[in-house]
C-alpha cells in the first residue's frame, strides 16, 4: 500500500514522459480503438513518427473539434474496447464496430457512419479452391477476437476457428499456413492484399455490416454531439471522401524491407522503447527491493500477525501469474474502485510487488544462511535485535545472495515486456507497433530480442564486476 501511494505520486514527475496525462487544462476526449484495421484505423510512420491514422480517426478529430476538446488515442485489442468503455478508461470507441444486439446490452451506439460487406481472404494459390461457402466447411478460419466475423465463422460447419486480437497476426497466420481463410470486411481486406493474399470468390452468408460509434451507456450528451457530427460529415459524401483518402494512405504501407532496413527505419521507435523499458525496470527494481526487504522483516518479526501477512503476501504473489496481476491492477481496480492508473503506474506497481515476493524469498534464504553465532555475538555485545539485524546480519546476508538478486534484476528487465499489453510503450510494444506498420512477422521481434539480450548482458557483466569487488574485500 505504501508503494501504491508512492507510485500514485509518480505522474507529477512523469507528466513529461507519459504523454497521455493531462498536461494542460484543455478537456480531453479519449478515443479507444484497435488500430489494425486499415483504412478505418492503422499505424503509419509520418515524418519518422508513429501515428494512428484512418477515417475513424478523422471522424474522432471532427467530434473533438466540435467539442473544443483535445483528442487522445488509446490503441488496444479489439476485444478490450467494450471493457475500456465500461470502466471509463475511454470516452468513446470508434473502431469499425458493428452495433450488434449483444453489444447494445453493454454500451450505446451512434447512428451508422459506414456500411461494409464481408469477404474471405485466402492465399493466392488457393484462389480457386474456395468458390462457395461449403468449400470452407471443416477449414481452419482466422477471425478477429470478439468481432462479428467470429459469429459468422461460428456458423460454418466444422470450421476450426483461430481468433486473435490483431488483424496483422491473422494475416501472418494465413501467410504461414496456420489458417486457410480469414473473414473480414471488404474495405479492410483491400489493405492487406499483396501477391500472396487474395480475395476468394466465396462470400459469407451475412454480408452486410454497418459501423457505429460506441459510448458508455447513458452518455446521451456525448452521443448527441457524435450524431450531429456524423450528420454533418455525411453531407456531400464527406465520409466516403475520408475513406478514399485513408485507403490511399494505407496502400503506401507496404514496402520491401529486411531486418536491417527495419532496424534502421524504426530506430527511433526502439530507442523510445529502450527508454521506457529501462525506466520501468529501474523503478521495479528499486521498489521491489524495498518492499522485499520490508516483507522479509515482517516474516522474521516477533509478531505472529506480521509473519502471517508476510507469508501470505509471498505465497499469493508467487502463486499467481504476473499477467493476471497486471490485468487486476490496470482494469480490475478501475472497474471496481474507479481507480484509473496509467500504464506506467500499473506497470511499476505490478512489477515491484511481483518481484518483491521473489526477492523476499531470496533475502530470507540469505538471512537464514548467516551463522546463528553472529546474532548471539551481537546481542551479547549489547546490540538491540533490530540494530544487529541491520548492521550485522543483513549486510552479510545480502552479500551472500547477491548472485540471486542479480538474477532477479535480469528477470525484471525481461518480464517488463509483459507490461506492453496495457499500452506501455516499451521495447516489446514498439516491436508490435512496427509489426503493425510493416506486416513483417519476425524481424521486429528478433531486433527486440537482440536489444533485451544486450541490456541483460550488460547488467550481468556489471553485477559480476560488483561481486568481484565485494569478494576482494573479503580476502583482505
Ligand atoms: N465490424 C466488425 C465488428 O464490429 C469488425 C471490427 C474490427 N475493428 C477493428 N478496428 N479491428 O465486429
UniProtKB/TrEMBL annotation:
<dbReference type="InterPro" id="IPR018313">
    <property type="entry name" value="SBP_3_CS"/>
</dbReference>
<dbReference type="InterPro" id="IPR001638">
    <property type="entry name" value="Solute-binding_3/MltF_N"/>
</dbReference>
<keyword id="KW-0732">Signal</keyword>
<feature type="signal peptide">
    <location>
        <begin position="1"/>
        <end position="19"/>
    </location>
</feature>
<dbReference type="InterPro" id="IPR043429">
    <property type="entry name" value="ArtM/GltK/GlnP/TcyL/YhdX-like"/>
</dbReference>
<keyword id="KW-1133">Transmembrane helix</keyword>
<keyword id="KW-0812">Transmembrane</keyword>
<protein>
    <submittedName>
        <fullName>ABC transporter substrate-binding protein/permease</fullName>
    </submittedName>
</protein>
<comment type="similarity">
    <text>Belongs to the bacterial solute-binding protein 3 family.</text>
</comment>
<feature type="transmembrane region" description="Helical">
    <location>
        <begin position="274"/>
        <end position="298"/>
    </location>
</feature>
<keyword id="KW-0813">Transport</keyword>
<comment type="similarity">
    <text>Belongs to the binding-protein-dependent transport system permease family. HisMQ subfamily.</text>
</comment>
<dbReference type="InterPro" id="IPR035906">
    <property type="entry name" value="MetI-like_sf"/>
</dbReference>
<dbReference type="InterPro" id="IPR010065">
    <property type="entry name" value="AA_ABC_transptr_permease_3TM"/>
</dbReference>
<dbReference type="Pfam" id="PF00497">
    <property type="entry name" value="SBP_bac_3"/>
</dbReference>
<dbReference type="InterPro" id="IPR000515">
    <property type="entry name" value="MetI-like"/>
</dbReference>
<feature type="domain" description="ABC transmembrane type-1">
    <location>
        <begin position="274"/>
        <end position="464"/>
    </location>
</feature>
<feature type="transmembrane region" description="Helical">
    <location>
        <begin position="445"/>
        <end position="466"/>
    </location>
</feature>
<keyword id="KW-0472">Membrane</keyword>
<keyword id="KW-0029">Amino-acid transport</keyword>
<keyword id="KW-1003">Cell membrane</keyword>
<dbReference type="Pfam" id="PF00528">
    <property type="entry name" value="BPD_transp_1"/>
</dbReference>
Amino acid at each position: 500500500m505504501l508503494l501504491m501511494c508512492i507510485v500514485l505520486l509518480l505522474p507529477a514527475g512523469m507528466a513529461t514522459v507519459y504523454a497521455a496525462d493531462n498536461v494542460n487544462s484543455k478537456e480531453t476526449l479519449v478515443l479507444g480503438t484497435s488500430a489494425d484495421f486499415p483504412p478505418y484505423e492503422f499505424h503509419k510512420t509520418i515524418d519518422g513518427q508513429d501515428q494512428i491514422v484512418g477515417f475513424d480517426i478523422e471522424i474522432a478529430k471532427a467530434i473533438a473539434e466540435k467539442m473544443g476538446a483535445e483528442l487522445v488515442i488509446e490503441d488496444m485489442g479489439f476485444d478490450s474496447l467494450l471493457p475500456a468503455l465500461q470502466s471509463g478508461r475511454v470516452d468513446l470507441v470508434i473502431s469499425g464496430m458493428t452495433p450488434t444486439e449483444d453489444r447494445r446490452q453493454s454500451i450505446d451506439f451512434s447512428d451508422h457512419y459506414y456500411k461494409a460487406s464481408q469477404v474471405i481472404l485466402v492465399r493466392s494459390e488457393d484462389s480457386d479452391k474456395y468458390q462457395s461457402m461449403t468449400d470452407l466447411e471443416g477449414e481452419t478460419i482466422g477471425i478477429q477476437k470478439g468481432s462479428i466475423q467470429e459469429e459468422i465463422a461460428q456458423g460454418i460447419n466444422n470450421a476450426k476457428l483461430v481468433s486473435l486480437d490483431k488483424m496483422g497476426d491473422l494475416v501472418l497466420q494465413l501467410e504461414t499456413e496456420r489458417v486457410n481463410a480469414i473473414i473480414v470486411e471488404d474495405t479492410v481486406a483491400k489493405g492487406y492484399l499483396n501477391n500472396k493474399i487474395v480475395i476468394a470468390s466465396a462470400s459469407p452468408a451475412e454480408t452486410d455490416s454497418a459501423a457505429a460509434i460506441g459510448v458508455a451507456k447513458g452518455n446521451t450528451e456525448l452521443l448527441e454531439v457524435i450524431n450531429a457530427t456524423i450528420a454533418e460529415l455525411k453531407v456531400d459524401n464527406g465520409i466516403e471522401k475520408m475513406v478514399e483518402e485513408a485507403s490511399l494512405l494505407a496502400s503506401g504501407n507496404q514496402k520491401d524491407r529486411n531486418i536491417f532496413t527495419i532496424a534502421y527505419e524504426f530506430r527511433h521507435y526502439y530507442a523510445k522503447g529502450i527508454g521506457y523499458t529501462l525506466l520501468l525496470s529501474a523503478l521495479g527494481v528499486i521498489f521491489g527491493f524495498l518492499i522485499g526487504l520490508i516483507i522479509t522483516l515482517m516474516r522474521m518479526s516477533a509478531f505472529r500477525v506480521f509473519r502471517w501477512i508476510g507469508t501470505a503476501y509471498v505465497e499469493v504473489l508467487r502463486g499467481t501469474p504476473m499477467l493476471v496481476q497486471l490485468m487486476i491492477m490496470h482494469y480490475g481496480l478501475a472497474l471496481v474502485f474507479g481507480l484509473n492508473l496509467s500504464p506506467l503506474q500499473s506497470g511499476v506497481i505490478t512489477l515491484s510487488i511481483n518481484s518483491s515476493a521473489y526477492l523476499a524469498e531470496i533475502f530470507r534464504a540469505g538471512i537464514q544462511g548467516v551463522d546463528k553465532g553472529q546474532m548471539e555475538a551481537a546481542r551479547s555485545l549489547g546490540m538491540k535485535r533490530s540494530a544487529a539485524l541491520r548492521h550485522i546480519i543483513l549486510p552479510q546476508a545480502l552479500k551472500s545472495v547477491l548472485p540471486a538478486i542479480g538474477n532477479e534484476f535480469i528477470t525484471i528487465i525481461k518480464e517488463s515486456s509483459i507490461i506492453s499489453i496495457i499500452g506501455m510503450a516499451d521495447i516489446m510494444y514498439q516491436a508490435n507497433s512496427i509489426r503493425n506498420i510493416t506486416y513483417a512477422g519476425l524481424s521486429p521481434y528478433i531486433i527486440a530480442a537482440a536489444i533485451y539480450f544486450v541490456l541483460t548482458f550488460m547488467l550481468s557483466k556489471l553485477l559480476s564486476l560488483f561481486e568481484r569487488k565485494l569478494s576482494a574485500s573479503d580476502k583482505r
